[in-house]
Amino acid sequence: MICGVNDMANKIKVTLVKSTIGQKPEKRATVRSLGLKKINSTVEHEANPAILGMVAAVSHLVKVEEIN
Q1: Can you give the pLDDT at residue 1?
Q2: Sign of CA dihedral 24, 1, 51, 34
Q3: Which of 16, 47, 49, 63 could crosslink 36 through cysteines, CB 3.0-4.6 Å?
Q4: How far does Cα 57 stand from its chain's mean position?
Q5: How far is CA 42 from CA 32, 54, in A?
Q6: Cα radius of gyration rounded to whole Å, the chain
């Protein structure tokens, strides 16, 4: 399990809860590639290994929820 999300989940909802100001450029790029722009913006993604890896890399900036 990565970030408390079950690998069997079909979709996850990712919300940006902390600013990317002061973060390294790689972390900013990861947040942008997830589709997050502003604080409290939310996107839905398929729970595949690529997305889960990106979420794990910026887990200190985002909140993740399963969608059934």
Answers
A1: 47
A2: negative
A3: 16
A4: 8
A5: 12, 15
A6: 11
Structure token digits, residue 12: 């996850």
Question: What is the secondary structure of 1-68 as a DSSP string?
Answer: -BTTB-TT-SEEEEEE-S--TTS-HHHHHHHHHTT--STT-EEEEE--HHHHHHHHHTTTTEEEEEE-
Q: What is the pTM of this model?
A: 0.84
- Which residue, 66, 68, 67, 58, is CA-closest to 16? 58
Q: Report pLDDT digits (tens) over 28-61.
A: 999 999 999 999 999 999 999 999 999 999 999 9
